[in-house]
Amino acid sequence: MKRGILMLIAAATLIGCTAELPTVEWVEGARDPETKLYEHELIVRGVPEDAEDWVIWFSAPRHRTLEIIESDGIRLDLFRGRVNLLRPEGTPKVAGVYRLRYRTISKLWNIGYFPSGFTFQNGTDKPVRIEVKYSTLPLRSDGEEVYTKNEAVTISESAPEHIIPYPKSIVYGDEGTTNLSEWKRGEAVTMLNEKHPEGWYRITLDGSINIEAADELGAYYAATTLENIKGNSNSVRNMVIEDYPDFGIRGFMLHMATYHKSLNEVLRLVDLMAHYKLNLLHMHLTDDYGWRIEMPEIPELTTVGSRAMVPQPDGKGWYKEEVTPSSTTLDKNDDSFSTNGQYTREEYIALLKYADERKIRVLPEIDFPGHSRAAILALRAYEERTGDTRYTPTHKDDTSEFMSPQGMSDNTFDVALESTYNFIAFTFDQLIELYKEAGLPLTEIHIGGDEVPEGAWEGSPACQALIAKAPKGADFKEVLYSYFVNRVLDIAEARNIKICGWHELIEHLDKPTWKRMAQHCGWINFWGFDRMLPIVQESIANGVKIVLSNCETTYLEEMYTLNRQEIGGGWAGAIDIHKAFSLDPFNPAYPVKNKDLILGVQSQLWSKQLDHFVFPKGLGNFDRMWNAAPQCSYDTFYSTLVNYELPYLERQGVEYHIPQPGLKFEDGKLVANAPYKGGEIRYTLGEETPTAQSTLWSEPIEISDDVKVVSARYFYDGRESVTTTLRR
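Above: the chain's sequence. Below: its structure in token form.
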């Protein structure tokens, strides 16, 4: 079987290491039909002869090693999280060539799941990137599948008033037109003393421009609508537009705990959110991989918690207990690596004010009690420096053994320790003070609550003492979760704050705590699969408010298609523009009695590639946030996206995703179609990756029967798609 070869060369600076560096080859294996496991091979060549205490680090997301099949002079260890460790063991059969074959249970959905970031370190020398060659399985034939998908959408001309989100009502007047060229935001709005939904507005264009609104939000959204139409054309037909949002929460969660985003990146995102009328920026500020918000009383939260690099020797035969990066960062003091960085108080306050001017609230998330490794390490460092035990995160005699889904064995606060609640109260007070300095109210704090590993707390003397006081036969999880939630509610209520969380926060609560959550919880983000929606029904039945954050339609970092050259997650399935648009907030398969308790919809981004994943597919979500049911056909929506939104995004400097061309053989000829208007389809005969200089496809062309494979890419606005493959 012919294999694809992908070469990645990292030209690292050779500081503190020998001039010669090893190379790595990773060979992808197929799935064994008997074991149902995947077999791969790693080969290391060219280790310098004078290297005595060398290791090679690499990152492999969700790449769990189950079994070493054969090892020749080298061993592989899963160190922590995504970070893996290669080190010499014994003498290789061929001098200087180290081989290792291993099996994993993890499916490699795409190239983003391949081992990456190979980093060589000799003793205490500085780590340095090394060259890696990938020998991969061939791409599957997806040409006809993509062709059918592209063919299913008709791209037509769009009227300027076709914007995203699409207005609830557009009623055309006479044949006259209205000129928008002189109109500017801030011009007069008539505020109506009538009953309308929050954010309602009406725009009458009859040669003049008249705006009516039910409230300040309506006036703002009316102006946004006019700005967006004007961006499409200065001259429009006379019409009346009437519009309002179906949901009070139209959110976007930005995960910067793993991958820090600069203030300027976030401000640009806020501008884009305002353009599409979103009103909530959920800032996921802390996690296992990082703590991103400055709290000066405990400087270690950022001096320790926001810094990560490949593990460094501790001088005792192992490695220091530091924040483990999500990828193999070379230097924890280098902010050019997205694993490093934090927001100062001044930066966060500036963000709050900037977002408020655009009618966007900023919701901070501090993750408790799990997903907290960065905070736990920071608090231990703080206690070691100061002797202050007020914030001790775990019991000193805890013998719990667990492993989180992300490979962490020490990432959970002890919910039975008073010091845990001292720290939660501290973080609440720090956040409240930030919003106070910004002159803005803080009404909710998100506390996470998700993915506490099985086995956490079982070896904690404090937790066992708490269980001993519970009624005989009480459920371990229910007792501890209910205790935790009640204690956090005590802290929140004393400060006039409502808490929010992911749906795991409420999965193990006793009935009194359910009732209390219904009264004092802002909302719960449901992120699960559609098959898990009964949790939503149970929550609503207990009076708990919900914001839909379904992984199958709103986790924007999932790969666009199942093409293995696409990057992104695969565990929740591929999400393209159509799937994001097809989100149904009121899924008829899972009816709920009180839809008013579904407060809104939120998109999530857990990746560092913001532009690529959010745009353009996020626009499908954004339309569902404003319109629970589509107000236009998918063809109209897609045409609007192609005709107006892609040029807008281009003007904003957004490097949005480029979809694939379709391919098929028809009567012996190669036929292709494009996903957008314009652009170029370039192809090669064989497995070779097409470039901008490859043959241009412009019409059906005869292809010899001897040609068994055609590869094509779509080139559009200076960027290109992944490769479409057509096999005979």
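The CA atoms of residues 371 and 634 lie 39 Å apart.
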